[in-house]
């Protein structure tokens, strides 16, 4: 089927209902901002998006694994070299462990350089009898609970662009400037294993990576091959006025691409088949992901494939399952089975964060590390039972030692939550919990080798 991927066609979403859009108080001000954004240079290039689509095609075929992670909500204040570096460091460390364990390439995708907009359950928030618009991300309004901060301001869309641009600049520099060197990354993991209360458990895996690196060097492998890393940027394509202003024609092909990020995803709250988000995503050539919550039916999934991947092009569409640890075993098997039977080759990714949130007695919104792990385990179990590929994990994380999620090897207790609860929206795994998760996923893979990976001897003692 031929989809019209021209820039003119990419505007068709405007005729449809768009969920979760801010009530901008001044439509003229919004139009002035989007007109200005239309003149800005692209943040990413179409060729890079194609490259990611090819890598995701390998995931869909069972030959690669995705690690997608980053903040729930990036903030403008969080655009600093230290914060971006520490997030990348965490992703790179997790990726080294996962590459070794899965024995397939790990496609590294940040929730980064554009993750500034949040869908919310409620349009307003009430505190002490005062009702104000809910915080919808730094791209829309401020977190402070004042009428001024909470009023949507389209000027923020320009700050979103510039913050994304500065972040991408740092990512490109860190990824290619030696910071991502595999030896270096492995040294950090060694420090983690040595300094972690449960490090012993991972000692054997770390030694295995040491041996593999020494073996490669002894064989004369070119060390420069391991000196840099490809890192892609992704975010939820929520604010369609922003996305539309950053949609451009690729001169090579004449097709429209979102140039705000390499991969865009559609959230659980905006994946309506007759809604504007699916329509917009159907018209751009970027790789697209859709979050699938516990109410998703196989018919929903098949209809999304028809809308977003009518040509059944591996790498074009990824499904990010976020069912919750109690629902994953009930809901996911039927979806995977029917999608597989349809002949579509999507990449399946597990988001074990969004279905496992609860409010602690202190009032903090949190998640338990064990619940996160339980959902990932369920995801692997389902794919193992069906002989399909568990294609990756999607994690809300930060490189800082925050106390937002409870549990983990270096246990964060409910009573610790107040110490460093810094997220602007949902709770993130801290650096330690993120690395712990990567090692635990490595152990899951040991027990359930990937279809396309090499059989490997046990990685944990
Ligand atoms: O990150 C996801 C959503 O934006 C978030 O879970 C919404 O949270 P809320 O239910 O507090 O609005
Ligand atoms: C809002 C998000 O997720 P979901 O759509 O799955 O709720 C998110 O990932 O930020």
UniProtKB/TrEMBL annotation:
Its EC number is 2.5.1.54. InterPro entries: Aldolase_TIM, DAHP_synth_2. It holds the Pfam family DAHP_synth_2. It catalyses: D-erythrose 4-phosphate + phosphoenolpyruvate + H2O = 7-phospho-2-dehydro-3-deoxy-D-arabino-heptonate + phosphate. It comes from the Bacteria. Pathway: Metabolic intermediate biosynthesis; chorismate biosynthesis; chorismate from D-erythrose 4-phosphate and phosphoenolpyruvate: step 1/7. The keyword Nucleus does not apply. Keywords: Amino-acid biosynthesis, Aromatic amino acid biosynthesis, Transferase. Belongs to the class-II DAHP synthase family. PANTHER family: PHOSPHO-2-DEHYDRO-3-DEOXYHEPTONATE ALDOLASE, PHOSPHO-2-DEHYDRO-3-DEOXYHEPTONATE ALDOLASE 1, 2. This is Phospho-2-dehydro-3-deoxyheptonate aldolase.
